[in-house]
Design brief:
Elements lengths: L1 H10 L9 E10 L21 H4 L11 E7 L12 E5 L2 E2 L3 E4 L4 E6 L5 E5 L6 E6 L4 E5 L9 E6 L7 E6 L5 E5 L3 E8 L2 E8 L4 E3 L1 E5 L4 E9 L4
Parallel strand pairs: 1-17, 3-6, 5-11
Antiparallel strand pairs: 1-13, 2-12, 2-14, 3-4, 6-9, 7-8, 10-11, 14-16, 15-17
Length: about 230
């Protein structure tokens, strides 16, 4: 009996599970990348909270490099990550240009600077306006998915330092990757079989979405184009 079972195992080995499907490729930018306008470049009502006499004389080291996020539409969002995503304020700026989150996920907005920072957004229905916070303080908030689907775009500003801007994005899918705004190579793994839309988000570039059908264990490569300003 043992011999028979051994022969059967050799002739008919147990099928191994297929490898996770992988979608990879390149994001290509066509046209000129414009800088996103900041509607809050104005004299701040909170200017008196800041100043070298009270909070140090560190100056801004410039904006963080702008990014884009490439993602698949058609997959459900994932569970909240642990630890929660963090949007930090440092050197009188945000430390990231884009913070992708899942619907309902808690986001920590933390002052890691030597000066006070304010934080707010006017984006409906996620709008909020929090009082200025001293160094070391943080606040957590969650953001639900937009009712009409797609990406929930939440521009975040500091009224003390009007140059500051970041975007919290409520993602419609658990498959996404951040890239430089100049594009480049991406790789999305663990994709279940199905038909999806590959697209991206950037504050000024317009994506040309691509329909992709993924089979079990397939490795597929595509090109995604984002359109910039035509001179």
């Amino acid at each position: 009996m043992i011999k028979t079972a051994l022969v059967a195992a050799l002739l008919f080995p147990t099928a191994l599970p297929a490898a996770d499907a992988v979608l990879s490729g390149t994001v290509v930018i066509r046209g000129r990348i414009e800088k996103a306008a900041n509607p809050h470049l104005h004299a701040s009502a909170y200017d008196s909270y800041d100043g070298p006499s009270s909070y140090g004389d560190d100056a801004s080291e410039g904006e963080p490099a702008q990014q884009l996020v490439v993602y698949l539409e058609g997959l459900p969002p994932a569970k909240a990550s642990d630890p929660a995503p963090v949007l930090s304020q440092k050197n009188r700026n945000f430390t990231a240009s884009i913070v992708p989150v899942q619907p309902g996920e808690m986001v920590t907005i933390r002052n890691d600077d030597r000066v006070r920072h304010h934080v707010r957004s006017n984006a409906k229905p996620w709008d909020f306006n929090l009082k200025p916070r001293p160094p070391g303080e943080s606040v957590t908030r969650s953001f639900e998915a937009p009712k009409d689907g797609g990406v929930g775009v939440i521009p975040v500003y500091c009224d003390i330092h009007s140059n500051m801007r970041a975007h919290i994005l409520v993602m419609p899918s658990r498959k996404w990757q951040l890239l430089p705004e100049t594009g480049g190579h991406f790789k999305l793994t663990g994709i279940p079989p199905g038909t999806y839309t590959l697209t991206a988000w950037h504050p000024t570039l317009k994506p040309v979405p691509v329909k992709v059908t993924i089979r079990k264990g397939q490795r597929k490569s595509v090109e995604l184009v984002l359109l910039g300003k035509e001179d």
